[in-house]
Design goal:
Strand content: 25-35%
Number of helices: 7
Largest sheet: 9 strands, mixed
Number of domains: 2
CATH class of the largest domain: Alpha Beta
Radius of gyration: 19 Å
Shape: globular
Oligomer: single chain
Helix content: 25-40%
Distance between the termini: 23 Å
Length: 303
């Protein structure tokens, strides 16, 4: 929970955190018709820096286009809006949530012609998983990942994540830290809110877009960092049994960052601890997001 002294950017104005409210009948609350991004800002020697801001803004607008939402602003305006609560709240590190939604109180599915509001909240945020430093356990979910015949998996629409909530809740009830979801074709897709990577025989393997994954910005960052380190990266279909026989595995995402996976379906992955390639990429990612690697300095927007 953010402190009461913090502010949320709401349709061009700063609103105290505890007063950034909407009506209970708001369309996007009832029907899950909102769109969002998850972005992190990191502490660097030059001050706070937002990681891959342009890419997050691009995806936010792409999501709006996919869902036919007419945003009341341009991309440059949203970039300024995302930066502003980091400055206003004097945050060195934070998680930033831009959210677009139909701010209209009516019963009915159609949002056409309804008011669209945009809010941006920035809050202090640590590790997404408590056991990140030791590695987490996962369960393959009975719930399959949505596909483009059902909902657009490349869009970050609020309603899409009901699928993720079902999978994650199921995994936690069965004693695991997180779920791994399969595509409707039975291939490994991703976690409920994270992309997935495996290490097999020295190669980095990750499901490709045919598995109905979200094309994650952190996923893209890991691929580029791995290639810069001379690692071979394979984007392809991944069979479920490959989870069990991999040497290493980890999740990648804005919230999760790089989170090692040490057990899947009660089977130990590799040696059951953080592997050397995972550690290499974790350290390299930390260097990139905190401004310690000049090769990836173009990913940072300093506040």
């Amino acid at each position: 929970m953010a402190a009461a002294s913090q502010y949320v950017w709401f349709d061009g104005k700063f609103v105290p955190f505890e007063k950034a409210n909407v009506h209970v009948l708001t369309h996007s609350l009832q029907y899950g018709s909102g769109i969002f991004e998850g972005i992190r800002a990191y502490k660097t020697a030059k001050g706070p820096a937002i990681f891959r801001l342009d890419d997050h803004v691009k995806r936010f607008f792409n999501t709006a286009k996919i869902y036919g939402m007419q945003l009341p602003m341009k991309r440059e305006d949203l970039k300024k809006a995302i930066i502003s609560p980091v400055e206003k709240n004097s945050l060195n590190e934070c998680y930033i949530r831009p959210f677009g939604f139909y701010n209209d109180q009516h019963i009915g599915l159609s949002p056409l012609g309804k008011k669209v509001s945009v809010v941006v909240a920035a809050i202090a945020f640590g590790n997404y998983f408590e056991n990140k430093d030791k590695g987490i356990s996962c369960r393959v979910s009975s719930w399959h990942r949505i596909n483009s015949e059902i909902l657009p998996p490349e869009a970050k629409g609020s309603g899409n994540y009901l699928n993720s909530i079902l999978a994650s809740t199921e995994a936690k009830r069965e004693g695991a830290d997180e779920a791994i979801m399969l595509s409707v074709d039975g291939y490994v897709a991703e976690g409920p809110g994270e992309n997935l990577f495996l290490v097999r025989n020295g190669k980095l393997v990750t499901p490709d877009e045919s598995a109905d994954i979200l094309l994650g910005i952190t996923r893209d960052s890991i691929i580029k960092i791995a290639e810069a380190k001379g690692l071979e990266v394979e984007e392809r279909g991944v069979h479920r049994e490959e989870l069990y026989t991999s040497d290493e595995a980890f999740f990648a995402g804005t919230a999760a960052e790089i989170t090692p996976i040490t057990r899947v379906d009660s089977r130990r992955i590799g040696k059951g601890k953080i592997g050397p390639i995972t550690k290499l990429l974790l350290d390299s990612y930390d260097e990139a997001v905190t401004g310690q690697n000049d090769d990836f300095s173009y990913w940072l927007t300093y506040v």
